[in-house]
Structures are given as C-alpha cells and as structure tokens.
Amino acid sequence: MSRLFDLTGKVAVALGGNSTLGGSIAKGLAEHGAKVAIVGRNMETAEEVTKEINEAGGEARSFQADVSDLSTVEKVAKEIEGWAGGWDILMNAPGMNSPTPYFELKTDEWDKIMDVNLRGVVFATQIFAKKMVEQDRGGSIINISSVSSGPPLSKVFTYSASKAAINNVTQFLARDFAEHNIRVNAIIPGFFPAEQNRKILSEERVNQIMGHTPLNRFGEPEELQGAAVYLASDKASGFVTGELLRVDGGFGSMTI
C-alpha cells in the first residue's frame, strides 16, 4: 500500500505552508518523499516548518511571498523554479478570518480577506499552473476550503463567502485542467486549533461546535495529512478531480 502514497521525486509548493494547518500538511507531504517549498508571509514561521522537515530527514526550503501581492508570487515562482526546476503539487492554504458582524463590515476588511482567501489563491494558482501545463507531466492542486463554505457559519460572513467561492473555483479548474492531467481538489477541514479561529472560540461557541460534531472533539493538524497525501498522489487518486473532501469529524453530516 505504501507505494500508492509515495511522493518521492515530486516537488510540492505549499502556499501558506507556514500556518498551523498548512505547515502540518507540508510536513506530511515531505514525510512521503516530496521536496517541499514552504511559502508564507512570515519567514520566521516558514523557517520553523522548514527546519522541522529537514531535521526529520526531508527536504524543504523557505520562501517569502504574500498572495495578496501577486508580484511577490511571480518572484517566488521563479525562485522555486531555480531551486527545484519545477513542481508537481500545489497546495493553497493561505487564509484570513474575521468575526466582524455583517452590518459592521467595511469594504476595506472585505477586500483584505478576499485578497488573501480568494483573489490571491485564484491568481497564484494561475501563476503556478502555467508552469505545470508547460511541464506536461500532470500534477495535483489542493485547495484548503472550510466547513464554512456551505452552509455558512455564523460570525464569519466574509470568510464563509470566500471559501464557498473556493469550492466553485476548485470544480471549475478541475474541468479546465483535466486535459493536462492536472487534478484539482479541495479539502474541507472541520474545526482545528488554527490561529485564525481561536479568536471566536468562546465557551458557548465551542459547545455549539461540539454539539454539531459527532466525534465530539476538535481535529488535530496531523489528521489533515492523510487526505492531502492521498490527493497529491497520482497512484492513489489519479482518477479523482473536482472533489471536495471533508475532514471534519462528521460536522457536515449533521443538522440538529
């Protein structure tokens, strides 16, 4: 079975690979043989993830870019190409959240979140996917969505809207890129202890989440690795594209 999930010889670009969830996924890809480019705005956290991968016997390097500033993405794509020659896997995990109520929402906050969660992902993918098409060796693009993508969650209006759009983008690109044998899928995480959702996790909110999660607990970041490695592997998921794969403790199967 291990050969199905062997990523040896593959190069993965982890946008947002310096985050809690993105970093864990990047480590999982590296543990299965992928050479990983850790890309993030914060080089300190990117270096921490890179160090952990390299000390564990993997191969990774840190790169700085902000998906809301596409000039930095174009620059980092050239840097990664110089380092690795190209890439086979693109993981989109940048994210920004806010609990601002709808009637208090300002256009600048909406734009800031959308620039990272949607616009940045769409156009960063455009930059990296062009190289994947030119390489003509197929590949896998993995977008990190959210259970808030539908139905939306209360308290995170803009975030929910951005993630709903990511699901749509995932399925659109799955069809567009199929002729190039580039698969496009999304992982829909449930509630994990990521930095961006801690600010809204009051005791009442936690109780609401647990009441809606059959497994009655939060997920651990490492529990996203298996889904990502599966979607990254051509041997394990070569006929899987346009899929929205839930890793949510059963959250999406519940109503009341």
From TrEMBL:
Record keywords: Oxidoreductase
- Cited InterPro entries: NAD(P)-bd_dom_sf, Sc_DH/Rdtase_CS, SDR_fam
Top-level taxon in the UniProt lineage: Bacteria
Cite the GO molecular-function annotations of the record.
oxidoreductase activity, acting on the CH-OH group of donors, NAD or NADP as acceptor
TM spans (from-to): none
Question: A GO biological process this protein is involved in?
Answer: carbohydrate metabolic process
Give the UniProt family note: Belongs to the short-chain dehydrogenases/reductases (SDR) family.
- Name-wise, this protein is Gluconate 5-dehydrogenase
Give the organism, scientific name. Gracilibacillus halophilus YIM-C55.5
